[in-house]
Amino acid sequence: MSALFEELDYCPTPIGALSLRRRRDLRLGVDVWEIMLGQDFLMTSHFTASEVALGTLGVAACPGEKLDIVVGGLGLGYTAEAALADPRVATLRVVEFLAPVIEWHETGLLPMGTRLVDDARCELIEGDFFAMAAGDGFDPETPGRRYDAILADIDHAPDHLLDARSDSFYQVDGLRRVARYLKPGGVFGLWSDKMTDQRFLDRLDEVFAQAWAEPVTFDNPLTGKSFTQTVYLARAGDE
User: Fold this and answer.
1) Domain 47-235, CATH 3.50.50.60 — does that match?
2) What phi and psi, each to the nearest 5 degrees, are found at residue 197?
3) What's the N-to-C CA distance of the chain in angstroms?
């Protein structure tokens, strides 16, 4: 049996102390990986249904073949892995602000090992997703490059942020800026830890040709009760 608790990595970052830890859940008989920023839980392997849904539903909503996808936020990698499961995906750029998170994937420290870095379609990029969305886009070598889908899983929810730098992204002007980098009919997707917020859905409706929410309900093994999170999806208009 593995150790009951182990801190696998700890390092300061510009937005707080980042740690990766593994603990044994004796009740369920499984190892659990957790990423923490200060006292905030960023992600746990205990429940990943909504992160997987973001990648699966976001790519499934895309028309066409040879899809180019951006994922904002790497974490334990479940959204990126779900996106890559669609054989139509030709390229996947995963933008991660925290360099240690990329290193965990490169060294195989996480449950999925090096599956993401071993996939030739996938590129892990250290960068500020929000600054890229507000600036010249997600490919410094090709400013203005457009994508079939841009999927973001960084903050807890549009009104529950990790730090203040991302606040404007969730407003109408910020959504308009990220929409510039979608191909006609392309899809924007956003993960939220909370149930559907109609106010945010209304903002998406102002910017995109179509917007909807996909509630994701799953059994929370920590509480023994069901829990609902949300995947927001929006489609750019045809040009």
Assistant:
1) no
2) -105, 110
3) 57
Domain spans in the chain, listed from the N-terminal domain onward: 47-235
CA gap 153, 130 in Å, rounded = 12
Strand order in the sheet with 40-44: 5-13, 16-25, 30-37, 40-44
Give yes or no for a contact between 72 and 150, defined as CB atoms under 8 angstroms apart: yes
Flag whether pLDDT at 161 surpasses 80. yes
Query: How does DSSP assign 58-97, residue by residue?
Result: HHHT--SSSEEEEEE--TTSHHHHHHHTSTTEEEEEEEES
Residue 222 confidence class, pLDDT cut points 50, 70, 90: low
pLDDT digits (tens, 9 = 90+) for 181-210: 999 999 999 999 999 999 999 999 999 999
Pure H helices in the chain: 49-60, 78-84, 99-106, 115-118, 129-134, 172-179, 198-207
Give the position of tokens 């999170």.
229
What is this structure's pTM? Answer: 0.94
Per-residue pLDDT tens for 16-58? 899 999 998 777 778 899 999 888 888 888 889 999 999 999 9
What span, in angstroms and rounded, lies between the C-alpha atoms of 159 and 167?
8
